[in-house]
Design brief:
The chain has 15 helices and 14 strands. It is α/β, with parallel strands linked by helices. The chain folds into three domains: about 170 residues, 3-Layer(aba) Sandwich (Rossmann fold); about 90 residues, Rossmann fold, CATH 3.40.50; about 110 residues, Rossmann fold. Helix 12 packs parallel to helix 14. The chain is globular and about 75 Å long. The two termini are about 40 Å apart.
């Protein structure tokens, strides 16, 4: 069994810049081991190379060594495209500057990263070959850019860079996000409803269920896990009412019928809407389901790629439930993995998965981009609860 932290809770740090600026040697220095190929030949790094690392007090992070964004030619353009995809979903960027110092290329790249809203650090690498010029220091100061002078070859400035990473990390990564812990107290009983169907992974639970169960245990509460057909028996055998019932969204209608109204009820996906994103924005986005028209295009976003089953949640069930609820003739487009469409304005509504495989910063960035472009956005669990007529009850534990 792997002891690695899930990808969705890792801080993603993209190391970017020109070819041969020392990006690979810098990631080796940061990680304290040789995990990236170092060469004087420009363009040695092709596909983005991930390196997992524990950067306390932030916790688990992933450094991505990327190809030089000044690469050229047909193959080079593909490398650049791959590197930019990593940059778009990063939480922090390191703009690595070689011995030639800041040029117009680096300044333009800095403006691009800043436009994306990604906090970044300009790293003047190779200071063993050439000291940073007064002009470059002045430019960084005047532009409000955080900069660090280092030499990955000699190991100087690396500790300073690590401290700068901790300081510049997004607030949502420095603060511990709330999953279910604020809804329960020590000693409470929490009933978790976990259906086992065709979509359930063989021999294990899905990540949101695992993380919620761990959160319950961390709060010194008691987690009781059942399938949807066992709810009434479980409730009848408990000496007192559970403080909370959490169910898979796909079973929310039947579970809501079996759980008395005086017992708080929500879904794993709704918990993740708050844990990874912005619950209030996603709840407001679901209101668009009441105002759909014939011909509207709905964007369905999944953060992970998987083999589709006969009754796939994103490709079959969500479109069916929304179409039935609205009574309209709608078009659904599905994007999987880290792909996110550039022409968001083509869509009337975006429906995102829980985002368990995304970092919180990336999920928030997607939500904010939808809001910026006036595209209502919601998530699977909230959309399902809305179409099943139980959203108000599911949101009640959060005071919404």
């Amino acid at each position: 069994m792997s002891d690695k932290a899930p990808r969705g809770v890792r801080l993603t740090i993209a190391i970017t810049g020109r070819r041969n600026a020392g990006k690979s040697s810098l990631i080796n220095a940061l990680a304290g081991q040789d995990i990236a190929i170092v060469s004087d030949t420009p363009g040695t790094t092709t596909d983005p190379v991930p390196k997992h690392y524990e950067l306390l007090p932030l916790g688990p992070v992933t450094f991505y060594d990327t190809a030089g964004l000044d690469d050229s030619g047909e193959l080079g353009n593909l490398r650049v495209k791959s590197a930019r995809k990593i940059l778009l979903r990063s939480d922090i960027a390191l703009l690595v500057v070689g011995e030639k110092g800041l040029g117009e290329y680096e300044k333009q790249l800095a403006r691009e990263i800043e436009h994306l809203g990604i906090p970044f650090i300009t790293v003047f690498n190779k200071t063993d070959l050439r000291p940073v010029s007064p002009e470059d220091r002045e430019f960084c100061s005047a532009s409000g850019m955080t900069s660090v002078e280092a030499s990955s070859t000699e190991g100087t400035g690396i500790d300073t860079l690590k401290q700068a990473l901790i300081t510049i990390a997004p607030p949502e990564m420095r603060e511990e996000p709330v999953l279910a812990g604020d809804l329960i107290d020590e000693g409470d009983w929490v009933l978790c409803v976990v259906p086992i169907d065709l979509a359930a992974p063989k021999g294990r639970l899905i990540l949101p269920q695992v993380q919620v169960l761990r959160d319950i245990l961390d709060r010194d509460a008691l987690a009781i896990t059942v399938k949807e057909k066992e709810i009434e028996e479980a409730l009848g055998n408990l000496r007192r009412k559970p403080a909370l019932v959490i169910t898979d969204s796909q079973a929310i209608l039947s579970v809501a019928g079996d759980v008395p109204d005086d017992i708080p009820l929500t879904t794993f996906s709704t918990l993740f809407a708050r844990y990874k994103g912005d619950l209030e924005v996603l709840a407001q986005g679901s209101e668009k389901l009441d105002r759909l028209e014939d011909g509207d295009r709905i964007l369905v976003c999944e953060a992970c790629s998987h083999r589709c089953v006969a009754d796939d949640i994103g490709r079959v069930k969500i479109p069916r439930w929304i179409s039935s609820y609205s009574g309209k003739d709608l078009q659904f487009d599905t994007y999987s993995g880290h792909d996110f469409p550039e022409l968001l304005e083509d869509y009337t509504l975006a429906v995102h998965c829980g985002g368990c495989m995304l970092g919180r910063t990336e999920m928030l960035r997607r939500i904010r981009e939808c809001v910026r472009r006036n595209v209502p956005v919601t998530n699977y669990g909230i959309a399902i609860s809305k179409t099943q007529g139980v959203l108000d009850r599911v949101l009640t534990p959060f005071g919404i």
